[in-house]
From TrEMBL:
Keyword terms, alphabetized: Membrane, Transmembrane, Transmembrane helix
One Pfam family it belongs to: PilN
Parts of the chain that traverse the membrane: 20-43
PANTHER family hit by this protein: DNA UTILIZATION PROTEIN HOFN, TYPE IV PILUS INNER MEMBRANE COMPONENT PILN
Cited InterPro entries: Extracell_DNA_Util/SecSys_Comp (IPR052534), PilN (IPR007813)
GO biological processes: type IV pilus assembly; type IV pilus-dependent motility
Transmembrane helix keyword on record: yes
Name of the protein in its database record: Pilus assembly protein PilN
Organism name: Acidithiobacillus ferrianus
Annotated region described as Disordered, given as residue ranges: 178-197
Keyword Membrane: yes
């Protein structure tokens, strides 16, 4: 009978299996490292992309903040210019007001009425004067009401007085200046011919 010793064969087979197991473990380890590196690379790329987007948005936000600040400055300058323009327009509209006031006052003052003092406070005008008769003061008030510049005449004081040894009525009258109408951009509309001022 032939005897075969299988021990070296089994030992060799065990050694081969151990090597295969070690190689499989090393392969799995390498595969896990590659997988981890791939996942890490993907997430790193996404994080870098998101950081780039955030930095871009921060730059855009900074630029927009600067533009908003410049727009606010421009609006402030615009409002200042509109305010100046309003003041200039108001002065332009009122520059002929004194001439119109005195011309109209001369036209509405009837014969026999003498004005001695005139005071203006804002849109209110106070007039002191003398009249030969009370009817003339009433006519003066009617003329004021009919004028285009003055309105709301109110007689404050009327009393008897002597002027050059004549009996006259001394009066104090208050009136208001009419606000300019919207169509008349140049301030006070010029009175048309043939109509009473």
């Amino acid at each position: 009978m032939i005897r075969i010793n299988l021990l070296p064969y089994r030992e060799a087979r065990r050694a081969q299996r151990s090597q295969l197991l070690v190689l499989a473990f090393v392969g799995i380890l390498l595969l896990a490292v590659l997988l981890y590196y791939g996942v890490y690379s993907i997430f790193s790329a996404r994080v870098a992309d998101e950081r780039g987007k955030v930095q871009y948005l921060q730059r855009v936000t900074t630029q927009l903040d600067q533009k908003i600040a410049s727009i606010a400055d421009l609006r402030k300058k615009r409002d200042e210019l509109f305010s100046r323009e309003g003041i200039i327009t108001d002065l332009q509209n009122k520059r002929d007001m004194v001439v119109h006031l005195f011309n109209t006052l001369a036209r509405v003052t009837p014969d026999g009425v003498f004005l001695t003092h005139l005071r203006q406070t804002g849109n209110a005008i106070t007039v002191d004067g003398y009249a030969q008769a009370n009817d003339q003061v009433a006519a003066f008030m009617r003329n004021i009401e009919a004028s285009r510049i003055f309105e709301k005449p109110e007689l404050n004081i009327i009393s008897k007085s002597k002027l050059n040894n004549e009996d006259v009525g001394q009066f104090t009258l208050q009136m208001s200046i009419r606000p300019p109408t919207a169509p008349a951009q140049s301030g006070i509309p010029a009175p048309s011919k043939g109509t009473q001022p």
